[in-house]
Automatic annotation (TrEMBL):
Belongs to the sigma-70 factor family. ECF subfamily. GO terms for biological process: DNA-templated transcription initiation. This is RNA polymerase sigma factor SigJ. Keywords: DNA-binding, Sigma factor, Transcription, Transcription regulation. Gene3D superfamilies: 1.10.1740.10, 3.10.450.50, Winged helix-like DNA-binding domain superfamily/Winged helix DNA-binding domain. Pfam families: Sigma70_r2, Sigma70_r4_2. InterPro entries: ECF_Sigma-70_Domain, NTF2-like_dom_sf, RNA_pol_sigma-70_dom, RNA_pol_sigma70_r2, RNA_pol_sigma70_r4_t2, RNA_pol_sigma_r2, RNA_pol_sigma_r3/r4-like, WH-like_DNA-bd_sf. It comes from Antrihabitans stalagmiti.
C-alpha cells in the first residue's frame, strides 16, 4: 500500500457512522453494536483494502451479517428480560431530524416495532427500507436468495405498517412541550401534565431488574401523570435535569449528585405527548451521555 492510499483503519473510521447506524437499528443496543463493530474491524483488518473494489459495501456486508447473528442470540435473551425491554438510548445531533427516514428509524417507537419482527425480517427491513439497498444487495448481505429476501421484505413491511405510530422528529415546539412538562412535574401540577398528553399516551419503564421500575406499561393521561409525579417526588439527592436529544427525539437526562439515574425520552406528535420512555437500567446508561454520529447515505 502506498503512502497516498488510506489505511484499513482510516477506511473503517470513514464508514463507521454508517456501520454504527445499520447495526444499531438491527440490534437496538449500543453495547452490542460496539461489539459487532469491533468484530467487523478485526475481520476488515485481515483484508488487503487495495483488493476490495467497494470498501463501504464490503464493510456493510460484514457488519450486517455479524449483527444478524448477534440479534438471533439477543432475542432469546430478551424473552427472559425482567419487565419491559427498551432500546439502549443514544444521544443524536439535532441535524439527524433533517433526514425524516433516519430520524424515525432510530426513534424508540420504531425500534420497539422492529423488536416484534423476526431477526431476518428486521435485518431485511432495515437494509432495504431504511438504507435503500436493492434486493440483490440485501440477499448478499444476509446470505439468502433474492426471492427469499423479497418475500421477507413484503412480510416485514406489512408488519411494520400495521404497528407503526405517527412520528415527528425533534423540533423547537417539541422542546417547549418538554419544558412545560418539566415545570408541571416539578410543581406537582397534575392537570398541567395531563393537558400535555394525548388520550392514548403510554409510559414504559425499563429497570432491567437492577432498579425499581414499573414492570408493565402505564396507560392514559391521569395514570401517566400520577406516575410522573411519583418519580418527581422521589428521593434523588441533589437532582439535576438536562434537556437533550436522544434517538432523534426530545429527552431528559436525570442525574443525582452528578450520576446519571435515568433517561426519559418523549414521543411527541401533533403537539401532544403520546409516549414516554424511561430507561433506568444502569447497564444501558453507561454511555447515554455521549453523542453518536449517524449516517444513512451509502454512496
Amino acid at each position: 500500500m502506498s503512502s497516498s492510499e488510506p489505511s484499513s483503519s482510516e477506511i473503517f473510521t470513514e464508514h463507521r457512522p454508517l456501520l454504527f447506524t445499520i447495526v444499531y437499528e438491527i440490534l437496538g443496543s449500543k453495547a452490542d453494536t460496539e461489539d459487532v463493530l469491533q468484530d467487523s474491524y478485526i475481520r476488515w483488518s485481515q483484508v488487503d483494502p487495495t483488493e476490495v473494489d467497494n470498501p463501504r459495501a464490503y464493510l456493510a456486508r460484514i457488519a450486517s451479517r455479524l449483527a444478524l447473528n448477534n440479534l438471533r442470540t439477543a432475542q432469546r435473551r430478551r424473552e427472559d428480560y425482567p419487565g419491559n425491554w427498551l432500546p439502549e438510548p443514544i444521544q443524536t445531533a439535532s441535524d439527524v431530524s433533517d433526514d425524516a427516514v433516519l430520524a424515525e428509524s432510530v426513534s424508540i417507537a420504531m425500534l420497539l416495532v422492529l423488536e416484534t419482527l423476526s431477526p431476518d425480517e428486521r435485518a431485511v427491513f432495515v437494509l432495504h427500507t431504511v438504507f435503500g439497498y436493492t434486493f440483490p444487495e440485501v440477499a448478499d448481505m444476509v446470505g439468502k436468495t433474492d426471492v427469499a429476501v423479497r418475500q421477507i421484505a413484503h412480510r416485514a413491511k406489512a408488519h411494520v405498517q400495521a404497528r407503526r405510530r405517527r412520528f415527528q422528529p425533534e423540533s423547537r415546539t417539541a422542546t417547549e412541550i418538554v419544558e412545560k412538562f418539566f415545570a408541571a412535574a416539578t410543581s406537582g401540577d397534575i392537570q398541567g401534565l395531563m393537558d400535555l398528553m394525548s388520550p392514548d399516551v403510554v409510559e414504559i419503564s425499563d429497570g432491567g431488574g437492577h432498579v425499581s421500575a414499573a414492570r408493565r406499561p402505564v396507560l392514559g393521561p391521569e395514570r401517566v401523570a400520577r406516575f410522573v409525579l411519583g418519580i418527581a417526588r422521589g428521593e434523588l439527592a441533589e437532582p439535576t435535569f438536562e434537556l437533550t436529544t436522544c434517538n432523534a427525539q426530545p429527552a431528559m437526562l436525570v442525574r443525582s449528585r452528578g450520576a446519571l439515574e435515568f433517561v426519559l425520552l418523549f414521543d411527541i406528535v401533533d403537539n401532544v405527548i403520546q409516549g414516554l420512555y424511561a430507561v433506568l437500567n444502569p447497564e444501558k446508561l453507561a454511555t447515554a451521555h455521549l453523542s453518536n454520529p449517524l449516517a444513512r447515505e451509502r454512496d
